[in-house]
Design goal:
heterodimer; A: alpha/beta; 15 strands; about 55% helix
Chain lengths: ~500, ~180
């Protein structure tokens, strides 16, 4: 049976990885509109896995008990098959999730091949349930049982809160479009991302005409319907079409994967390359756009301890700093062809999506903890303020060059974690040591254990007022909304 | 200022003042302090032997063609450089590191643990590379296994032209890719 235990342990580990990485992190299944059926199936399957793990941890079943247990396994297979069908029906699986599901199916098949002959022998014996101590296996499977039971509950709650799939995101969003006397035509690259979609919704509501440059046309249509024009190639814009401004938010997610050489190249290519393409396109036009608002990040400053940093501070030397430097340098070339360029160094953007969506499940389960020493600064900004600043940069000619787009009251990672845990009324665990994060995440850990105390000096200088200058205000707004309106939450995730 | 700038880069450290002999586009491509992306086109020719097809496929080259859309991304941390080439949307990544030799050599690492020691030369204002060693997973390979390489980079029409022809002594050409990208400032 050692082989069966090993295969079951592998199933548990791979399943946990699938849940945490694919379902939770990559897809955000719990907050994805129209994912109710899949969440129900996941909740049921996890609910069945919990007793399976308990049996393997502590019990030897024979007779009718063994037959019922076999029925449990058969039900689990049936649910998994239904889940395969539902996944293909409701969403496009990322490549690694598809591969992982296949590996899980093969592993489970191998597990059954080893288990079934023994189970058949057990069924033929008198009915009994004998408590067995299987040493380390018992404790490992107990942990898995607790984990799957907790995840079953989490998926069941998410399914209960999930919004129906019958409406597109733009329909659920209920855009209130105002009439604009002088509407601008604004090209938004990366408009389907977390910040991009909120900006597009705002611009549409203000009465501007938005062209969304995205990789996935269907996603853009789902988000904006006929309110915006989705394109996947700049060649789709006719040379006679007027474009007044460009916003560039395109870029692979910085924390989406370990920073391997491949990943670094992709992060650079998707940001710097897109910026260059936009400027080449703009340069070739008869009438050039007046302004380019290009995203950047506070990572430009590198790891800087307690030093207060305004826009004039020098840059860092780690990978995020080099990436942002190259990105900004490329954008600022726009100045040479007569375009006003604003590069917004964004802090961690808090909203229904992005960082907060990653943290809420962990903190919601009472498993939140600060990172490293916890005294690293976390420059942050509420999504509404971020959108305000993009809109301001588009219209206010006083803004040009680099601008720190962060809230005026930065907090340390410990303060952030404490406030989030307190807002959710959950405990806060001791900090995860930096060495653990650096070992697991490599260079990527710098995003979690290093920080910079960035201040929005330029914005304050022109008298900009923030809607949420304090983190407590941002959390009460966002987490209050999270609790009360699942519709908004789902729509924000698309 | 210029020599100080180039000195902080991989090729600047290896070639020193010699780098000044090259035209602006070549210097720009090898003076990347943080990251750079350039666009252009590439022609790809593949040898006729089965080995050529296998090597081309293993190392991620697209099917032979003319004027294939090309994006080259260079990511530098000062000491090492990642060169990511996308020919017709097929990505190929190599890593350049300083060689251990006192001579101007660099190490170019490909996938499957394949690494070449390349001597960096300046001839007629062109940057050339010459194979002086080959290792697989760190194990030095005998010279008869080394590929033949004709590789040079120069400026053309204000852009960066590259011409890399790789072969084996006993089978002839494996792959040749040559193209042009706008190096920018």
């Amino acid at each position: 049976m050692e082989v069966a235990y090993t295969l079951l342990a592998a199933q548990g580990i791979l399943g946990a990885w699938d849940n945490l990485w694919n379902h939770e992190y990559k897809v955000g299944l719990a907050r994805r509109a129209g994912a109710r059926a899949e969440l129900v199936l996941h909740a049921l399957r996890a609910a069945l896995y919990a007793p399976v793990f308990v049996v393997f941890a502590w019990l030897e079943l024979t007779g009718w008990y063994a037959a019922v247990f076999a029925g449990l396994l058969a039900t689990e297979i049936a649910i998994t098959l239904l889940d395969f069908v539902e996944e293909d029906r409701s969403r496009e699986l990322p490549a690694n999730e598809r591969v992982l599901h296949t590996v899980l199916a093969i592993n489970f098949g191998a597990f059954l091949a080893v288990l079934v002959p023994q189970l058949w022998l057990n069924v033929q014996q008198p009915t009994a349930a004998v408590v067995m101590d299987r040493g380390i296996w018992s404790w490992l499977f107990s942990v898995f049982a607790l984990g799957t039971a907790a995840w079953s509950l989490r998926d069941a709650i998410a399914a209960f809160r999930n919004s129906p799939p019958d409406l597109a995101t733009w329909q659920r969003r209920q855009l209130a479009v105002r009439r604009c006397v002088h509407p601008k035509v604004i090209l938004v690259a990366g408009g389907t991302g977390f910040v991009g979609r909120h900006l597009c919704w705002r611009l549409i509501e203000k009465g501007h005409r938005v062209i969304v440059l995205a990789r996935d046309r269907a996603k853009a249509v789902d988000l904006f319907g006929s309110y915006a024009r989705p394109i996947i190639d700049l060649k789709e814009i006719r040379s006679t079409q007027r474009v007044d401004a460009i916003v560039n938010l395109a870029g692979e997610p910085i924390a989406g994967w370990w920073w391997t050489a491949w990943r670094k190249a992709l992060l650079v290519e998707s940001r710097v390359g897109m910026t260059r393409m936009l400027l080449d396109w703009a340069q070739a036009r008869g009438v050039k756009p007046a302004v380019l608002v290009n995203a950047s990040a506070v990572g430009w400053y590198g790891a800087r301890g307690d030093e207060p940093l305004d826009e004039s501070a020098h840059g860092g030397d780690d990978f995020p700093a080099r990436l942002c430097r190259a990105w900004e340098r490329e954008a600022l070339v726009g100045g040479n062809i007569g375009i006003r360029v604003v590069t917004l160094r964004l802090g961690l953007v808090l909203g229904h999506g992005g960082l907060l969506a990653r943290l809420l499940p962990t903190f919601g389960l009472g498993l939140g903890a600060p990172f490293g020493r916890g005294n690293q600064w976390m420059p942050w900004i509420h999504i509404d303020d971020a959108v305000d600043i993009f809109a301001l940069a588009l219209r206010d000619v006083r803004l040009s060059g680099q601008v720190n787009a962060v809230a005026p009251q930065p907090v340390t990672n410990r303060q952030f974690s404490q406030l989030l845990a307190r807002t959710l009324r959950r405990p806060l665990w001791p900090a995860i040591p930096a060495v653990v994060l650096r070992t697991v995440l490599g260079e990527l850990a710098t995003l979690f254990v290093d920080g910079q105390r960035v201040l929005p000096v330029k914005l304050i200088g022109i008298g900009h007022r923030f809607r949420h200058p304090a983190l407590s205000s941002a959390f009460s707004d966002l987490i209050g909304r999270e609790g009360s309106t699942s519709l908004r939450t789902a729509s924000d995730h698309g | 200022m210029a020599s100080c700038l180039y000195g902080a880069t991989l090729m600047g450290g290896k070639l020193g003042p010699t780098l000044q002999c090259f035209d602006e586009s070549v210097r720009t491509m090898h003076a990347v302090l943080d990251a750079k992306v350039v666009f252009g086109y590439t022609d790809i020719d593949c040898g006729t032997s089965p080995l050529a097809g296998l090597v081309s496929w293993l190392f991620g080259f697209p099917a032979p063609g003319r004027a294939l859309p090309t994006a080259i991304t260079v990511v530098s941390d000062g000491a090492c450089e990642i060169w990511h080439r996308r020919f017709a949307n097929q990505p190929i990544l190599t890593r350049l590191e300083p060689g251990r030799s006192a001579q101007p050599t660099i190490v170019e690492r490909f996938r499957f643990g394949v690494a070449f020691d390349l001597r960096v030369l300046e001839r007629d204002g062109r940057l050339r590379f010459e194979v002086v060693g080959m290792r697989i997973f760190g194990i030095p390979m005998p010279q008869w296994l080394w590929p033949t390489l004709t590789a040079e980079e120069c400026e053309e029409s204000g852009g960066f032209r590259f011409d890399i022809d790789i072969g084996m002594r006993w089978t002839g050409r494996l792959i040749r890719y040559h193209g042009w990208v706008r190096a920018g400032g």
